[in-house]
Amino acid sequence: IDDLAKIDYSLNNFPAVSQPFIDLDLKGTVYPSGNHTGPSCVAAPFVIPDQSDSMLYLAFSEYFFQTSSFAYYTAGAFNITIAEETCSYFNINTEIFGSIIPEVREYSVTPYPVMLKLMATEMPIISLQQDSFTAEIQGSMEVFAVLPDSTTQSLFTMNVAANTSIAPNIFDHKLMGSLCLNR
């Protein structure tokens, strides 16, 4: 897939061939690059609704998304540092945090740029629903002040738990999605 993850896809059963169709039952497991160990979860069987108005149907199970989540979590893909350039674009500095957290204001009279370190502390859990899927993410965020000599000073760390819903949709021949923060 990329430098962080690889996919192993193999046939679960012999292809079912009949007059109107060929059914290929592939099991796609995503692994961290360089670590082709057993999967982190068990694949549950699922059935695709019987329809015959299209030439090709693709279905992805929770197993595919769960092994993808495991691979990227193991590779550290969910650990992100948002540097000074990005924060200054959004005008995030110690003054902004000082208006929310009084201790930050006491520490920093002069507004300094900030750096954010976001880390997933547990593997994100992805669940599929009828018309959407949810992602539960546990993590932490550490906020640093970037001082004039380019050193950083830790301001605070907070734990984050997020539950989001994503509803994919096709609009003007493009796959789009709407994201909703549930919690």
UniProtKB/TrEMBL annotation:
The cytotoxic action of BPI is limited to many species of Gram-negative bacteria; this specificity may be explained by a strong affinity of the very basic N-terminal half for the negatively charged lipopolysaccharides that are unique to the Gram-negative bacterial outer envelope. GO terms for molecular function: lipid binding. Gene3D superfamilies: Bactericidal permeability-increasing protein, domain 2. This is Bactericidal permeability-increasing protein. GO terms for cellular component: extracellular space. Monomer. Homodimer; disulfide-linked. It holds the Pfam family LBP_BPI_CETP_C. Residues 50-183 form the Lipid-binding serum glycoprotein C-terminal domain. The keyword Ribonucleoprotein does not apply. It comes from the Eukaryota. It comes from Indicator maculatus (spotted honeyguide). GO terms for biological process: defense response to Gram-negative bacterium; innate immune response.
